[in-house]
Amino acid sequence: MIIPRNLQAPLEQLASTMPLVAVTGPRQSGKTTLCRAAFPDMPYVSLEPLDVRDYAVSDPRGFLHEHADGAILDEIQRAPELLSYLQEEVDERPEPGRFILTGSQHVGLAAALTQTLAGRIAILNLLPPSLDELIRFGEPPADLWTLLWTGSYPRIYDRRLHPHRWLADYTSTYVQRDVRQILKVTDLEAFTSFLRLVAGRTANELNLSSLGGDAGVTHPTARAWVSVLATSFICVRLAAWHRNVRKQTVKSPKLHFLDTGLACHLLGVTEPDQLRHHPLRGALFESWVVSEVMKSRAHRGLPESLFHFRTAKGLEADLLIEEGDRLTAVEAKSAATVASDFFTPLKRLAADVERQLPHLEFDARVVFGGDTAQRRSDATVIPWRQLHDHRW
Fold it and tell me: Which of 2, 110, 141, 187 has its CA 20 to 30 A from that of 385?
């Protein structure tokens, strides 16, 4: 089943002005399906088969001559040598939308695309479907915990697959294989343990010394492994907000798993009901909110501009979105009932911003696990089902 993706309109718009457009993102997020749906009349070439890849690498000019009128080139990271020859092609014929590229392994790919094809290419990120996109499959998860446990990889919904089994295969087939190839990991057991430890730290500030120590690897190894997980779209590092509205602002990034279903699988959560009383249910909900906001922005072709905020004295905001003169602060609460203490950090942060950065328009929001929207004087209260009714 092919569902409309929110990124299709930005993709088509950029292809009407740029000779090259690249769509990157995690494996199985729907990149190929999106590009073929957006450009059904363009030839499609996958660089995954060895014979096709060998042709593209050994005779790049002949390969591109065969597709002189343009093509969708899938899994471009398999033949990075092709990029400099694509530069020659589009310099000679800079027709809009001539080549559409897709790539899964983000490590080094974005740098190669921007350095080799600077001024000729636009890059978009396609993440797994957001909640409003999942609804288009029909019969989305009826409750919050099933949604978090299932995650959002499209194949699970398209083929009605059992999430835990599919995510086990995804972990061994893509995550471990791809990351191990990039990092030349020889100790699979240590890396698998590390991956589970990272999942257990979702929605926490990144402490590489602690993480490496628990996994039995060195600090440089932990740094390298986290970096690859982030650039492969498995997790995201949310930078600390850089505006110094208070002294002693914590500078460490916050780590979030991009897909809560994958995190649940790695944590050994085998049924949705286990999340109701799980010690990480609040952290998983916060990571889900962050990932949904990321998807909302990425699938509109917008920069992330996402941060977290915490001071040494404990004032914090789960998520900050800075856009021009507007600052949106978000608290994520998995509870189904609104409590007054939800608003305390937002009120304190609002007062600091008004005093020190009066030019900023401050918008406070609470996303919670209940069903009733509220417009409080201190913040807008947003039920999890209605997250996409708001602009982020």
Answer: 2
Residues facing 327 on adjacent strands: 322, 362
In this structure, how many other beta carbons lie within 10 angstroms of the beta carbon of residue 16?
Answer: 10
Tens of pLDDT, residues 319-358: 999 999 999 999 999 999 999 999 999 999 999 999 989 9
Coil/strand/helix, residue 46: strand
Q: How far apart are CA 274 and CA 347, in angstroms?
A: 33
- The DSSP H or E segment spanning 280 is none
Question: First-to-last CA distance in the chain?
Answer: 28
Closest by Cα among 304, 263, 299 to 281? 263
The pLDDT of residue 188 is above 90:
no
Q: How far apart are CA 227 and CA 194, in angstroms?
A: 13
Give residues with Cβ within 8 angstroms of 139, minimum separation 6: none
Number of H helices, E strands in the chain: 17, 14
pLDDT at 382: 98
Residue 363 one-letter amino acid? D
Task: Reduce the DSSP state of residue 208 to 3 states and report it.
Answer: helix
For residue 85, which of 124, 58, 51 has the smallest C-alpha distance?
58
Domain ranges of the chain: 8-125, 131-389
Nearest to 295 by CA among 343, 359, 233: 233
Q: What pLDDT is stored for residue 312 in this prediction?
A: 80
Please choose, from the candidates 208, 207, 205, the residue with its C-alpha nearest in 3D space to the C-alpha of residue 254.
Answer: 205
Cα–Cα distance for residue pair 270/268, rounded to 1 Å: 6
Positions of E strands within the chain: 20-24, 44-46, 71-74, 99-103, 121-125, 204-205, 235-240, 254-257, 306-310, 316-323, 326-333, 361-368, 374-375, 380-383
CA distance 179 to 170: 12
Q: In terms of CATH architecture, what is 8-125?
A: 3-Layer(aba) Sandwich (3.40)
> Which of 382, 190, 165 lies closest to 285, judged by CA?
382
Residue 116: the pLDDT is 82
Residues 6+ apart with CB under 8 A from 371: 336, 383, 385
Residue 175 has pLDDT above 90, yes or no: no
**Backbone φ, ψ for residue 101 (5° rounding):** -110, 145
